[in-house]
Fold this protein.
Amino acid sequence: MLNEGIEHGLTEADNLWQKDKMEEACGVFGIYAPGKDVARLTYYALYALQHRGQESAGIGVTEGNGIKIHKAMGLVSEVFTEQIISGLKGDIGIGHVRYSTMGSNLAVNSEPLVCHYLKGDLAVAHNGNVINAQELKKKLAANGAVFQSTIDSELIANLIARYAQDTLEEALTKTMIDLKGSYALVIMTEDKLVGVRDPYGNRPLCLGKLDNAYLLASESCAFDVLGAEFIRDVAPGEIVIIDRQGVHSHQFLSSVERALCAFEFVYFARPDSNIDGINVMEARRNMGRELAKESPVDVDIVIPVPDSGIAGALGYAEARNIFYDMGLMKNRYIGRTFIGPQQKDRDLAVHLKLNPVKRLIEGKKVGIVDDSIVRGTTSKRIVQLLREKGAKEVHMLITSPPVIAPCYYGIDTSERAQLIAAQKSLDEVRAYINADSLSYLSMEGLYRALGQECGFCTACLSENYPLGLPVGGKLGKHITEISTPKRKEVR
Ligand code: SF4
């Protein structure tokens, strides 16, 4: 049914909105818990990480004799049934939710990836983007390696297998030295669970504990769901190996400069997560407060774009002591509703998703807060909705700096040509979305909100790519060479 609809020109209503947001690529989870129902715990954790990827989901488990896996396209709720979860028995488990970036949206690219190598079965789940993947694949292919998918996990598994004569720790270290780019990995062998974070710490990964079990997750919210305790973040350049003896840490590369994705705090991560010591909700609220200091616009009411603008709007409203309310109601059940290709269908989709509360905004000067503007199409629709419902003025307040450049580190941004702030001046963007005013948070304001000035990747906001840039500026088959800042090895 789904394909039939697409073939006939229908579009998912939700896509009209989602295409105007940066999209997180993946969420990863791992658990070492002999005696516990690891598949079920992984399943619940993936629910908590679902915001990081909605295209496919997978769980792999092992009892020490091979790895069993179930993965498919769709949401966690669509991919797993009670029967499937009950059939996945194991002492160690890993899980993955995916939004495709480099690999296309195909079942063969869903994760975890499982392969058999010299030492048994191996499963890999990855969040991020390896920027020298093509170069490494060419080298491996020259030695006879074959690839069935386009995902980095397959490359990583191949590299680990190539070093199989070494201990697991040595094989992982050699693999990570080969890789350039962004990765938070959860890997499972038949008797070990492994977490790895790239030397820049670009993507988050943390370690938790549930009774005698150890857990790894992209975000701490996955631990909260399970009633587990957050222990610490995996450090940039660290390999964590969990086995019967406990947790072993190995620093394979020192980080010359941390470059945690600043957009995790702007939009991707769940507000109830803590990443590298920063609470996401608090950071977003601070962004609103900083924007209020920088752009104190004269408005009667502050409303958020739900859900991405809620924390920023609260911060903005409390800093200026302005009335705050939910002036836009979001339909949370729109899901995969298909709409026709005509403009009237698209207009209807806007109303399906968001509806302004007329009583709150009619005759008012409205400050509408969102976390970012990517293409501008959503902002334009929202301004139009508010005007249709009688807003006297509409002031767009954005709690991040303008998105001016693509991400090469695992986030699905639009092409530069589609990033409205890369193509138009501030006033041209304001005119395009038809707002009375448009304010962005400054880079300084963003750093103040995050509480520190260094340690973040802000490449999509600043064009300063701390992990290096594929030559040619575009990933995929065009890559021939990588320029990467020097990093110090501490083997
Ligand atoms: S460019 Fe950097 S800050 Fe922007 S989304 Fe990618 S990793 Fe995050």
